[in-house]
Automatic annotation (TrEMBL):
UniProt-listed GO biological process terms: cell surface receptor protein tyrosine kinase signaling pathway
A Pfam cross-reference name: PK_Tyr_Ser-Thr
SUPFAM superfamilies: Protein kinase-like (PK-like) (SSF56112)
Protein name in the entry: C-terminal Src kinase family member protein
Coiled coil: none
UniProt cross-references to InterPro entries, sorted A to Z: Kinase-like_dom_sf, Prot_kinase_dom, RTK, Ser-Thr/Tyr_kinase_cat_dom, Tyr_kinase_AS, Tyr_kinase_cat_dom
Keywords (A to Z) from UniProt: Kinase, Transferase
């Protein structure tokens, strides 16, 4: 099975789709890197005034939906206290695995000097056995590129990039990674939900940061910055 993304050539997304093909093709050709946690390009086709991007099919949906489904079920009472504690520890192990897999995928991109620029739980896919696949490379650029196109995701974006989009570096992805870690332990919460997007940069300048959710392990709190 494969997934096919159909992009109209005359649409604003045409350049985003083309960049996705460029980045994924470069990763596919490099046999020296570990691509286990990156979405794999199968091929692409240009015709009928559309760009068709063909990737592997990931059947488990995206990470954000999965986390929010856990949140929806969090209030359901367990039959016993022991069962609840067991499920809690299983969940922590799974979350630790998610963080490790995402870090592995982002490390691969860094090794190729590629900025993702749109890392968020909604852009991370899950296989049926909960293996991570980072996708959505349409905003990705080689490190050092000042070329910008597309809408940035304010709540996941590093302060220096909110100041000026051309400031994006590989370290800016590290900030986004910290926000994704927060998403995981908040069960798909909205970062800075109490702050309007237009005011976020001002708050960040004043030192505002995400508050780690309850029960977040100490070492994961440090990743959230």
């Amino acid at each position: 099975q494969v997934a096919v993304k159909r992009i109209k050539q005359t649409s604003r997304n045409a350049l985003v789709g083309a960049m996705e093909v460029v980045v994924m093709s470069a990763l596919l050709k490099d046999l020296t890197i570990n691509k286990q946690h990156l979405l794999t390009l199968i091929g692409w086709y240009l015709g009928d005034k559309h760009l068709y991007v063909v990737t592997e099919f990931i059947s488990g949906g995206n990470l954000l939906d999965y986390l929010q489904s856990l949140n929806a079920n969090a209030g359901q009472e367990k039959e016993s206290k022991g069962e609840g504690e067991e499920e809690y520890h299983k969940q922590l192990l799974q979350f630790n695995s998610f963080v490790s897999q995402i870090a592995s995928g982002m490390s691969t991109l860094e090794s190729k000097q590629i900025q993702h620029r749109d890392l968020a739980a909604r852009n991370i896919l899950l296989t049926q056995d909960h293996q991570i696949k980072i996708g959505d490379f349409g905003l990705s650029r080689p490190d050092g590129s000042s070329f910008t196109f597309g809408c940035i995701s304010t709540r996941w974006t590093a302060p220096e990039v909110l100041e000026k989009e051309a400031n994006f570096t590989l370290r800016s992805d590290v900030w986004s990674f910290g926000v994704v870690v927060w998403e995981i332990y908040s069960l798909g919460g909205l970062p800075y939900s109490d702050v309007p997007s237009r005011e976020l940069l001002t708050r960040l300048r004043r030192g505002r940061r995400l508050d780690p959710p309850c029960d977040t392990p100490s070492r994961m709190k440090r990743l959230m910055g």
